[in-house]
Amino acid sequence: MTTVELRTSIMAELDQMSVEMLESVSHYVRRLRHHARTVNKSADKGEVPDIVLSLLGAGTPVADDDLNARKAYNEYLEEKYK
């Protein structure tokens, strides 16, 4: 096999790999877009619990001695799952 034939062979393989890679990336992007659309449609638009709002500073404030609002969150969960 001559150098010219070898280079032609390598270029043909690289072209094929480029096409396959482009198809793979295109497929991946389509899957991402599909997933983003389905997640957005199925997202629960329910009300945000008061404990979450309080942790964000928008709801009922938690006690100052309640480190990381653990007591308030525990009470919230107990009330929620009664």
Q: What share of residues are in beta strands?
A: under 5%
Q: How many beta-strand segments?
A: 0
N-to-C terminal Cα separation, in Å? 80 Å
The biggest beta sheet reads:
none
Structural class: mainly alpha
- List the uncertain runs: none
Order of H and E elements: HHH
Supply the number of helical segments: 3
Helix content: 55-70%
Shape: rod-shaped
Q: What is the CA-atom radius of gyration, in angstroms?
A: 28 Å
Query: What number is the mean pLDDT?
Result: 75
SSE layout:
Layout: H1 3-42, H2 50-55, H3 70-80
Give a short synopsis of this structure.
By secondary structure, the protein is mainly alpha-helical.
Could you characterize the architecture of this molecule?
- It is a single chain.
- The protein has 82 residues and is mainly alpha-helical.
- Helix content is 70%, strand content 0%.
Which terms summarize this structure?
single chain, 82 residues, mainly alpha
